[in-house]
Amino acid sequence: MDGISLAPIGLLLLVACLIAMISRKIGLPYSAGLVAAGLLIALVPEGPQLPLSRDLIFNVLLPPLVFEAALQLPWKEFRRELPVTLTLALIGVGLAAAVVAAGLHYGLAWSWIGASLFAVLIAATDPVAVIAAFKEMNADKRLCMLVESESLLNDGVVAVAFAVLVAVAGGASASIGSVVPAFLWTLFGGALIGAIVSGLILLLAGRTNDHLVEITLTTLAAYGSFLIAERLHASGVLASLTAGLIIGNFGSMGAISDSGRPHVLSAWEFFAFLANSFVFLLIGIQLVGVPISRLGWLTATAAILLVLVGRAVAVYPLANLFRPTKLKVPFAFQNVLFWGGLRGALALALALTVPVSVPERGAIILCAFVVVAFSVFVQGLTMPWLVERLGLTRSRASRKVAAAPVRP
After folding, report:
1. Does residue 382 contact residue 28 with C-beta atoms inside 8 Å?
2. Residue 237 in contact with residue 209, Cβ under 8 Å?
3. Are 167 and 182 within 8 A, CB to CB?
C-alpha cells in the first residue's frame, strides 16, 4: 500500500454522506449537490485531487452503475415497453447524433469524425438524478420504467456505435463490409458474453444460501462480464446490462436464495451509491480545472443547444409513432423523456477515450464536461418541478381520481 493514500477517498465518502443527508432534507437532486460540492473541494487549497480518468470511470465506476440499474428492472414490464424503448434507443440515438454531428460540422467546421464521435458519446443519457427524484416524488410507475430502460438501452447502443467510430478514427476501414461485422459483434457479442457469465454465476449461486457468497458472485458477474467483453472488443456496457437483467429476473427463481435476495439488492444499492458519489464529486472537482476561453464558451453553448435539439428530434417524433397503439406515450411523458435526458459518467468516459489523432479531441472533452454540468444543474434541478407541474406523481393522480365526480 506504499504510495497510496486513503485519506482523499475517506474525505470524499464523508462529503457524499453529508450531501446525501442535506439533499434529502431540502429536496435538492443528489447529483447536483455532489457536483457543487466537488467544485468547492477543488477550490480548497491542498484539497483531495483525484484524476477522473477513462480507466477509473470505465473499469471501476461504470460496471456497478449499469449492473445495478438492470438488476432492478422487472422483466415483464421491461419486455412490454421494449418496442418503445428500443425505438428510442436505436433510431433515437441515430437521429440525435445526426443532428449534433451536422450542426458541429456545418456550423463550427469540425471534421466529420470529430463531430460524429462527440455526437454519439453525448447521446448517452444518465437518468440517475431523475430516477432518484421520481422515487422521492412517487412518480408514475410506467414513466419510471420508460426513462430508466430507455437510458440503459441507449447507453448500450452508444457504447457500440462509439467503439466502431473509434476504430474508424484509428485507421480501420470505413466500408460497410468491415463496419457492419464490427458493429454486430460489439452489439451481440456483448449481450452474449453477459448471458454466458451470468448463467455460470447463477449455476454457482444456486449451490449456496450464504448471502455474502451471493453478493460476491454477483460482483463477479458485473465486473467479469464487463471486463471480458471489453477485452474481446465487444460492448462491456451491454454485457453488464445483460448480466444484470438475467440475474435480477432469473436469479429470483431459485438461484439466488429468498433470504439472500434482499441482501444482494441492498448491497448493489450501496455499490451504486458509492459509484455515483465518486462520479459526480470528481466531475465537480475536474470542472474547476477545465480551461474555457471565450471561443470555448461559444462552442460549448452551441453544443448544449444542439444536444437539446437532437434529443427533441429523438423523442417526440418517435414517441408519437406509438400514438395509435396500446403503447401510446402521453405527451407529458415525452416532455420528461426529453428534459430528463441528463448526461453523466458514460459520456465523460467515452470523451476521455477519443483518440489523440482526432483534431477536436480537446474541444470534445471540454464540451462533454460543460454539457454534463448543464444537464445536472439546469435539467436535474428543474426535473422535480416539471414532474409535479405535469401531474405525473402517483399521489397526485390518485387525488385526481378521488376528486372526480361519480357518474350515475
Report:
1. no
2. no
3. yes
Minimal CA–CA distance to 166: which of 381, 348, 297, 356? 356
Cβ count within 10 A of residue 115: 24
SS3 393: strand
H or E element in which residue 184 lies? helix 176-184
Fold designation for 29-44+51-395: Na+/H+ antiporter like fold (1.20.1530)
DSSP string, 192-240: HHHHHHHHHHHHHHTT---HHHHHHHHHHHHHHHHHHHHHTTS-HHHHH
Q: Which residue has the cell 467515452?
A: 350
Largest alpha-carbon pair distance within the chain?
79
Nearest alpha-carbon partner for 127 in 244, 30, 20, 37: 30
Residue range 347-354: mean pLDDT, rounded: 88
Q: Show Cβ contacts of residue 303 under 8 Å, excluding neighbours closer than 6 positions.
A: 100, 104, 118, 122, 367, 370, 371
Q: How far apart are CA 206 and CA 154, in angstroms?
A: 32
DSSP H helix total and E strand total for the chain: 20, 0
pTM of the entire predicted model: 0.85
Cα angle 196, 200, 201; round to 5: 115
What would the pLDDT profile of 166-203 be if each residue is shown by its tens digit? 888 877 666 666 678 888 898 899 999 999 999 999 99
Break the chain into its structural domains and give their ranges.
29-44+51-395
Cell of 404: 372526480
